[in-house]
Design brief:
Layout: E1 5-7, H1 8-15, H2 19-28, E2 35-36, E3 42-45, H3 46-55
Antiparallel strand pairs: 1-3, 2-3
Amino acid sequence: MSEESITNAEFCAEERVSPPTAQRYRREGTGPAFYRLPGGGVRYRRRDVELWRAARRVEP
């Protein structure tokens, strides 16, 4: 069974961030885990994005 993955554009749309911001997250290591495709594209596993989002949650 393969895990669902999303593109960088999908990640940016879901998180409401610009592509340069997503690139900065990758460069600085502050975003979700990702993998780079041979042609240079980026993919995120859906589960990694969900875990990253949960870790950023702030309780009032």
